[in-house]
Amino acid sequence: MELKDIKIKRNVLLNPGPATTTDSVKLAQVVPDICPREKEFAGLMKGLRSDLLKVVHAPEDTYTSVLFCGSGTINIDICINSLVPEGKKILVVNNGAYNTRAVEVCEMYHIPHINLKSSIYEQPNLEDVEKTLKENPDVAVVYCCHHETGTGILNPIREIGALAHQYGAIFVSDTTSTLGMIPLDVVKDNVDFCMASAQKGLMAMSGLSFIIGRKDLIEASKNYPTRSYYCNLYLQYEYFEKTGEMHFTPPVQTIYATIQALKEYFEEGEVAKFARHHAVYEAIHKGIAELGLETVIDKKIESGLVVSVKYPENTNFSFEKVHNYCYERGYTIYPGKISTTNTFRLCSLGTITVEDIESFFVVLKAALEYYNIIK
Ligand SMILES: *Cc1c(COP(=O)(O)O)cnc(C)c1O
After folding, report:
1. CA nearest ligand 1 atom 11, residue
2. pLDDT tens for residues 25-61?
Protein backbone atom coordinates (compact mmCIF):
# COMPACT_ATOMS: atom_id res chain seq x y z
CA MET A 1 0.00 0.00 0.00
CA GLU A 2 1.21 3.49 -0.77
CA LEU A 3 0.93 6.45 1.55
CA LYS A 4 -1.56 8.17 -0.72
CA ASP A 5 -3.96 5.22 -0.40
CA ILE A 6 -4.34 5.63 3.35
CA LYS A 7 -7.89 6.62 4.27
CA ILE A 8 -8.13 9.26 6.99
CA LYS A 9 -11.49 10.11 8.54
CA ARG A 10 -12.62 13.48 7.24
CA ASN A 11 -13.95 15.96 9.80
CA VAL A 12 -15.59 19.23 8.80
CA LEU A 13 -14.21 21.88 11.12
CA LEU A 14 -16.44 24.93 11.42
CA ASN A 15 -14.20 26.50 14.08
CA PRO A 16 -11.98 29.45 13.09
CA GLY A 17 -8.86 27.34 12.59
CA PRO A 18 -7.10 24.97 12.67
CA ALA A 19 -9.02 24.24 9.52
CA THR A 20 -10.02 21.12 7.63
CA THR A 21 -7.07 20.01 5.50
CA THR A 22 -6.60 17.80 2.47
CA ASP A 23 -5.17 14.32 2.93
CA SER A 24 -2.24 15.29 0.70
CA VAL A 25 -1.32 18.02 3.20
CA LYS A 26 -1.68 15.62 6.15
CA LEU A 27 0.45 13.00 4.43
CA ALA A 28 3.13 15.50 3.38
CA GLN A 29 4.29 15.30 6.99
CA VAL A 30 5.26 11.67 6.67
CA VAL A 31 8.82 12.02 5.41
CA PRO A 32 12.19 10.49 6.20
CA ASP A 33 13.74 11.92 9.35
CA ILE A 34 15.92 14.92 8.67
CA CYS A 35 18.02 17.23 10.79
CA PRO A 36 16.68 20.72 10.12
CA ARG A 37 20.26 22.05 10.10
CA GLU A 38 20.85 20.30 6.78
CA LYS A 39 21.21 22.50 3.68
CA GLU A 40 18.34 20.59 2.11
CA PHE A 41 15.99 21.80 4.82
CA ALA A 42 17.19 25.41 4.61
CA GLY A 43 16.45 25.20 0.88
CA LEU A 44 12.88 24.13 1.63
CA MET A 45 12.41 27.09 3.97
CA LYS A 46 13.79 29.49 1.39
CA GLY A 47 11.16 28.42 -1.13
CA LEU A 48 8.45 28.53 1.52
CA ARG A 49 9.39 32.06 2.62
CA SER A 50 9.36 33.29 -0.93
CA ASP A 51 5.94 31.67 -1.61
CA LEU A 52 4.52 33.36 1.48
CA LEU A 53 5.47 36.73 0.00
CA LYS A 54 3.59 35.81 -3.18
CA VAL A 55 0.41 35.07 -1.24
CA VAL A 56 0.22 38.71 -0.12
CA HIS A 57 1.82 40.18 -3.27
CA ALA A 58 4.80 41.48 -1.31
CA PRO A 59 7.75 42.57 -3.48
CA GLU A 60 10.85 40.40 -2.72
CA ASP A 61 13.20 43.38 -2.70
CA THR A 62 11.45 45.33 0.03
CA TYR A 63 9.55 42.71 2.05
CA THR A 64 10.63 39.52 3.78
CA SER A 65 8.93 36.71 5.65
CA VAL A 66 10.24 35.52 8.98
CA LEU A 67 9.19 32.12 10.32
CA PHE A 68 8.56 31.22 13.94
CA CYS A 69 7.67 28.06 15.80
CA GLY A 70 4.46 28.67 17.71
CA SER A 71 0.75 29.36 17.39
CA GLY A 72 -0.53 32.59 15.83
CA THR A 73 -0.35 34.59 19.02
CA ILE A 74 3.44 34.43 18.87
CA ASN A 75 3.28 36.85 15.93
CA ILE A 76 1.27 39.39 17.90
CA ASP A 77 3.75 39.10 20.75
CA ILE A 78 6.77 39.50 18.44
CA CYS A 79 5.48 42.43 16.39
CA ILE A 80 4.52 44.38 19.47
CA ASN A 81 7.62 43.65 21.55
CA SER A 82 10.00 44.25 18.63
CA LEU A 83 8.67 47.23 16.69
CA VAL A 84 8.08 49.99 19.23
CA PRO A 85 11.09 52.32 19.53
CA GLU A 86 12.27 53.81 22.82
CA GLY A 87 10.06 56.64 24.01
CA LYS A 88 7.32 55.95 21.44
CA LYS A 89 3.84 54.51 21.63
CA ILE A 90 1.67 51.96 19.89
CA LEU A 91 -1.96 52.69 19.06
CA VAL A 92 -4.20 49.63 19.11
CA VAL A 93 -7.43 50.17 17.18
CA ASN A 94 -9.54 47.82 19.24
CA ASN A 95 -12.98 46.50 18.35
CA GLY A 96 -12.78 43.00 19.72
CA ALA A 97 -11.11 40.06 21.40
CA TYR A 98 -8.11 39.70 19.09
CA ASN A 99 -7.21 43.38 19.27
CA THR A 100 -7.63 43.12 23.03
CA ARG A 101 -5.03 40.37 22.95
CA ALA A 102 -2.61 42.91 21.45
CA VAL A 103 -3.42 45.34 24.27
CA GLU A 104 -2.64 42.57 26.76
CA VAL A 105 0.74 42.02 25.10
CA CYS A 106 1.48 45.76 25.48
CA GLU A 107 0.56 45.55 29.15
CA MET A 108 2.69 42.47 29.72
CA TYR A 109 5.78 44.14 28.25
CA HIS A 110 4.97 47.54 29.81
CA ILE A 111 4.99 49.15 26.37
CA PRO A 112 3.40 52.62 26.22
CA HIS A 113 0.17 52.19 24.30
CA ILE A 114 -3.21 53.69 23.54
CA ASN A 115 -6.14 51.33 23.63
CA LEU A 116 -8.64 52.96 21.27
CA LYS A 117 -11.60 50.83 22.22
CA SER A 118 -14.84 50.84 20.26
CA SER A 119 -18.00 48.74 19.91
CA ILE A 120 -17.36 45.08 19.15
CA TYR A 121 -20.43 45.12 16.88
CA GLU A 122 -19.02 47.72 14.52
CA GLN A 123 -15.98 48.59 12.48
CA PRO A 124 -13.63 51.13 14.07
CA ASN A 125 -14.39 54.77 13.38
CA LEU A 126 -11.72 56.27 11.13
CA GLU A 127 -12.29 59.79 12.42
CA ASP A 128 -11.48 58.63 15.94
CA VAL A 129 -8.32 56.97 14.66
CA GLU A 130 -7.26 60.17 12.91
CA LYS A 131 -8.07 62.33 15.93
CA THR A 132 -5.97 60.06 18.16
CA LEU A 133 -3.05 60.18 15.76
CA LYS A 134 -3.28 63.96 15.54
CA GLU A 135 -3.26 64.33 19.32
CA ASN A 136 -0.44 61.82 19.87
CA PRO A 137 2.53 62.53 17.61
CA ASP A 138 4.58 59.99 19.60
CA VAL A 139 2.62 57.07 18.13
CA ALA A 140 5.16 55.09 16.08
CA VAL A 141 3.07 51.99 15.40
CA VAL A 142 -0.62 51.59 14.58
CA TYR A 143 -2.04 48.12 15.09
CA CYS A 144 -5.34 46.63 13.98
CA CYS A 145 -6.62 43.17 13.31
CA HIS A 146 -7.83 42.66 9.71
CA HIS A 147 -10.63 40.33 10.70
CA GLU A 148 -11.93 40.20 14.24
CA THR A 149 -12.35 36.45 14.35
CA GLY A 150 -14.34 36.74 17.59
CA THR A 151 -17.27 38.44 15.87
CA GLY A 152 -16.63 38.05 12.15
CA ILE A 153 -16.13 41.76 11.42
CA LEU A 154 -13.75 42.78 8.65
CA ASN A 155 -11.84 45.95 9.55
CA PRO A 156 -10.93 48.68 7.02
CA ILE A 157 -7.17 48.12 7.18
CA ARG A 158 -6.33 49.90 3.94
CA GLU A 159 -7.82 53.11 5.36
CA ILE A 160 -6.28 52.65 8.81
CA GLY A 161 -2.90 51.95 7.20
CA ALA A 162 -3.19 55.11 5.11
CA LEU A 163 -3.91 57.15 8.24
CA ALA A 164 -0.93 55.60 10.03
CA HIS A 165 1.34 56.55 7.16
CA GLN A 166 -0.12 60.03 6.90
CA TYR A 167 0.87 60.60 10.53
CA GLY A 168 4.33 59.07 10.22
CA ALA A 169 3.60 55.73 11.90
CA ILE A 170 4.02 52.20 10.61
CA PHE A 171 1.05 49.88 10.28
CA VAL A 172 0.91 46.35 11.67
CA SER A 173 -2.11 44.19 10.94
CA ASP A 174 -3.01 40.85 12.44
CA THR A 175 -4.14 39.04 9.29
CA THR A 176 -4.14 35.60 10.89
CA SER A 177 -7.72 34.86 9.96
CA THR A 178 -7.71 36.34 6.44
CA LEU A 179 -4.32 35.62 4.87
CA GLY A 180 -4.76 33.08 2.09
CA MET A 181 -8.52 33.55 2.08
CA ILE A 182 -9.33 37.22 1.46
CA PRO A 183 -6.99 38.63 -1.20
CA LEU A 184 -4.44 40.92 0.41
CA ASP A 185 -1.91 43.16 -1.29
CA VAL A 186 0.42 44.54 1.34
CA VAL A 187 1.53 47.50 -0.78
CA LYS A 188 -1.94 48.61 -1.88
CA ASP A 189 -3.38 47.85 1.55
CA ASN A 190 -0.75 50.02 3.29
CA VAL A 191 0.41 47.11 5.44
CA ASP A 192 4.00 47.25 6.70
CA PHE A 193 3.67 44.04 8.72
CA CYS A 194 1.14 41.27 8.52
CA MET A 195 1.09 37.81 10.03
CA ALA A 196 -0.57 34.41 10.04
CA SER A 197 -0.24 30.79 11.02
CA ALA A 198 -0.05 27.82 8.72
CA GLN A 199 -3.17 26.19 10.15
CA LYS A 200 -5.64 28.89 9.15
CA GLY A 201 -6.06 30.26 5.62
CA LEU A 202 -3.28 28.17 4.15
CA MET A 203 -4.97 24.99 5.37
CA ALA A 204 -1.83 23.37 6.74
CA MET A 205 -0.95 22.23 10.26
CA SER A 206 -0.44 24.14 13.50
CA GLY A 207 2.98 25.06 14.88
CA LEU A 208 4.33 27.36 12.17
CA SER A 209 3.67 31.09 12.29
CA PHE A 210 5.12 33.84 10.13
CA ILE A 211 5.43 37.58 9.92
CA ILE A 212 5.66 39.30 6.55
CA GLY A 213 7.04 42.79 6.68
CA ARG A 214 9.30 45.52 5.40
CA LYS A 215 13.00 44.72 5.54
CA ASP A 216 14.06 48.33 6.15
CA LEU A 217 11.80 48.54 9.19
CA ILE A 218 13.08 45.26 10.60
CA GLU A 219 16.62 46.49 10.13
CA ALA A 220 15.77 49.79 11.84
CA SER A 221 14.38 47.80 14.79
CA LYS A 222 17.86 46.42 15.51
CA ASN A 223 18.42 49.34 17.87
CA TYR A 224 15.00 49.28 19.54
CA PRO A 225 14.63 48.02 23.11
CA THR A 226 14.78 44.20 23.23
CA ARG A 227 12.01 42.82 25.36
CA SER A 228 12.22 39.08 24.70
CA TYR A 229 14.98 36.57 24.09
CA TYR A 230 13.03 33.94 22.13
CA CYS A 231 10.52 36.21 20.43
CA ASN A 232 12.48 38.99 18.78
CA LEU A 233 11.83 39.90 15.16
CA TYR A 234 15.23 41.34 14.31
CA LEU A 235 17.18 38.42 15.82
CA GLN A 236 15.18 35.80 13.92
CA TYR A 237 15.42 37.83 10.71
CA GLU A 238 19.17 38.23 11.10
CA TYR A 239 19.59 34.49 11.69
CA PHE A 240 17.64 33.73 8.51
CA GLU A 241 19.74 36.26 6.57
CA LYS A 242 22.98 34.70 7.79
CA THR A 243 22.14 31.00 7.72
CA GLY A 244 18.79 30.49 6.00
CA GLU A 245 17.61 28.77 9.16
CA MET A 246 15.47 29.43 12.21
CA HIS A 247 17.48 30.33 15.27
CA PHE A 248 16.04 27.39 17.20
CA THR A 249 14.36 24.12 16.21
CA PRO A 250 11.70 24.65 13.54
CA PRO A 251 8.40 22.69 13.42
CA VAL A 252 9.85 20.30 10.84
CA GLN A 253 6.75 18.31 9.87
CA THR A 254 4.51 21.37 9.78
CA ILE A 255 6.93 22.95 7.33
CA TYR A 256 6.56 19.99 4.98
CA ALA A 257 2.79 20.24 5.28
CA THR A 258 2.86 24.00 4.63
CA ILE A 259 4.94 23.56 1.48
CA GLN A 260 2.34 21.11 0.16
CA ALA A 261 -0.49 23.43 1.26
CA LEU A 262 1.06 26.35 -0.61
CA LYS A 263 1.35 24.21 -3.73
CA GLU A 264 -2.37 23.48 -3.43
CA TYR A 265 -3.07 27.16 -2.69
CA PHE A 266 -1.49 28.29 -5.94
CA GLU A 267 -3.24 25.45 -7.81
CA GLU A 268 -6.64 26.51 -6.51
CA GLY A 269 -5.80 30.18 -7.09
CA GLU A 270 -6.38 33.26 -4.96
CA VAL A 271 -9.61 34.31 -6.66
CA ALA A 272 -11.17 30.83 -6.87
CA LYS A 273 -10.30 30.12 -3.25
CA PHE A 274 -11.83 33.40 -2.09
CA ALA A 275 -14.97 32.58 -4.10
CA ARG A 276 -15.17 29.11 -2.54
CA HIS A 277 -14.91 30.45 1.03
CA HIS A 278 -17.55 33.03 0.15
CA ALA A 279 -19.92 30.44 -1.27
CA VAL A 280 -19.48 28.37 1.91
CA TYR A 281 -20.23 31.48 3.97
CA GLU A 282 -23.41 32.18 1.98
CA ALA A 283 -24.47 28.57 2.50
CA ILE A 284 -23.96 29.04 6.25
CA HIS A 285 -26.21 32.12 6.25
CA LYS A 286 -28.82 30.28 4.21
CA GLY A 287 -28.83 27.32 6.60
CA ILE A 288 -29.12 29.57 9.65
CA ALA A 289 -32.03 31.48 8.14
CA GLU A 290 -33.83 28.24 7.22
CA LEU A 291 -33.61 27.07 10.82
CA GLY A 292 -35.02 30.40 12.00
CA LEU A 293 -31.82 31.27 13.88
CA GLU A 294 -30.39 34.78 14.07
CA THR A 295 -26.95 36.22 13.50
CA VAL A 296 -25.37 39.07 15.44
CA ILE A 297 -23.27 41.13 13.04
CA ASP A 298 -24.53 43.22 10.13
CA LYS A 299 -23.75 41.17 7.02
CA LYS A 300 -22.39 44.27 5.26
CA ILE A 301 -19.36 44.36 7.56
CA GLU A 302 -18.79 40.63 7.88
CA SER A 303 -15.58 39.12 6.55
CA GLY A 304 -17.37 36.20 4.94
CA LEU A 305 -15.31 33.80 7.05
CA VAL A 306 -17.00 33.72 10.46
CA VAL A 307 -20.69 33.91 11.34
CA SER A 308 -21.72 34.61 14.94
CA VAL A 309 -25.03 32.91 15.62
CA LYS A 310 -27.30 33.72 18.57
CA TYR A 311 -28.33 30.85 20.79
CA PRO A 312 -31.93 29.85 20.03
CA GLU A 313 -34.34 31.30 22.59
CA ASN A 314 -35.33 27.99 24.04
CA THR A 315 -34.40 26.75 27.49
CA ASN A 316 -33.71 23.28 26.06
CA PHE A 317 -30.73 24.68 24.17
CA SER A 318 -27.35 23.60 25.42
CA PHE A 319 -24.32 24.45 23.29
CA GLU A 320 -22.47 21.49 24.69
CA LYS A 321 -25.16 18.97 23.82
CA VAL A 322 -25.64 20.30 20.32
CA HIS A 323 -21.87 20.50 19.85
CA ASN A 324 -21.45 16.88 20.95
CA TYR A 325 -24.27 15.67 18.69
CA CYS A 326 -22.59 17.33 15.69
CA TYR A 327 -19.08 16.35 16.75
CA GLU A 328 -19.98 12.68 16.91
CA ARG A 329 -21.10 12.98 13.31
CA GLY A 330 -17.93 14.69 12.07
CA TYR A 331 -18.88 18.38 12.36
CA THR A 332 -17.23 20.78 14.81
CA ILE A 333 -19.06 23.95 15.85
CA TYR A 334 -17.36 26.55 18.01
CA PRO A 335 -18.28 28.72 21.01
CA GLY A 336 -18.66 32.47 20.54
CA LYS A 337 -16.34 35.15 21.85
CA ILE A 338 -18.88 37.89 22.62
CA SER A 339 -19.27 38.43 26.34
CA THR A 340 -22.59 40.28 26.16
CA THR A 341 -24.54 37.85 23.96
CA ASN A 342 -24.61 34.07 23.94
CA THR A 343 -23.36 33.00 20.55
CA PHE A 344 -21.66 30.19 18.72
CA ARG A 345 -19.60 30.47 15.58
CA LEU A 346 -19.73 28.81 12.19
CA CYS A 347 -16.75 29.47 9.95
CA SER A 348 -15.92 28.98 6.30
CA LEU A 349 -12.19 28.30 6.65
CA GLY A 350 -10.53 25.15 5.38
CA THR A 351 -10.95 22.85 2.46
CA ILE A 352 -14.73 22.62 2.77
CA THR A 353 -17.50 23.08 0.24
CA VAL A 354 -21.13 24.18 -0.01
CA GLU A 355 -22.11 20.47 0.01
CA ASP A 356 -20.35 20.04 3.36
CA ILE A 357 -22.40 22.91 4.77
CA GLU A 358 -25.64 21.46 3.40
CA SER A 359 -24.83 18.11 5.02
CA PHE A 360 -23.91 19.91 8.24
CA PHE A 361 -27.28 21.66 8.43
CA VAL A 362 -29.08 18.32 8.07
CA VAL A 363 -27.17 17.21 11.19
CA LEU A 364 -27.67 20.50 13.05
CA LYS A 365 -31.42 20.41 12.36
CA ALA A 366 -31.57 16.83 13.61
CA ALA A 367 -29.70 17.88 16.77
CA LEU A 368 -32.09 20.76 17.42
CA GLU A 369 -35.08 18.45 16.91
CA TYR A 370 -33.58 15.70 19.03
CA TYR A 371 -33.25 18.06 22.00
CA ASN A 372 -36.69 19.63 21.39
CA ILE A 373 -35.23 23.02 20.57
CA ILE A 374 -37.12 23.28 17.30
CA LYS A 375 -40.06 21.22 16.01
C1 LIG B 1 -6.41 32.44 15.33
C2 LIG B 1 -6.03 33.83 15.48
C3 LIG B 1 -4.85 34.19 16.14
C4 LIG B 1 -3.90 33.18 16.76
O5 LIG B 1 -4.44 32.32 17.69
P6 LIG B 1 -3.58 31.07 18.21
O7 LIG B 1 -4.54 30.31 19.04
O8 LIG B 1 -2.41 31.59 18.96
O9 LIG B 1 -3.13 30.32 16.97
C10 LIG B 1 -4.50 35.51 16.17
N11 LIG B 1 -5.27 36.45 15.61
C12 LIG B 1 -6.41 36.15 14.98
C13 LIG B 1 -7.21 37.25 14.37
C14 LIG B 1 -6.84 34.83 14.89
O15 LIG B 1 -7.97 34.54 14.25
Report:
1. 176
2. 999 999 999 999 999 999 999 999 999 999 999 999 9
CA distance 58 to 60: 6
> To test the ligand 1 pocket, which listed residue (92, 147, 149) has its Cβ within 8 A of the most ligand atoms?
149
pLDDT for the residue numbered 7: 87
pLDDT tens for residues 212-230? 999 999 999 999 999 999 9
Q: What is the DSSP letter of 301?
A: G
For ligand 1, residues with CB inside 6 Å are 16-17, 71-73, 98, 145, 149, 174, 176-177, 197
Q: Which atom of ligand 1 is nearest the CA belonging to 175?
A: 13
**Ligand 1 center–CA 18 separation, angstroms:** 10
Angle at CA of residue 218, ends 228 and 63, nearest 5°: 135
Residue in 176, 231, 345 to alter for ligand 1 test, most ligand atoms within 8 A of Cβ: 176
Question: pTM above the 0.90 mark?
Answer: yes
Q: What integer pLDDT is reported at residue 171 of this predicted model?
A: 99
Q: What is the largest CA-CA distance in the chain?
A: 67
> How many CA atoms within 13 Å lie on the side-chain side of 366?
13
Cα–chain center distance at 104: 18
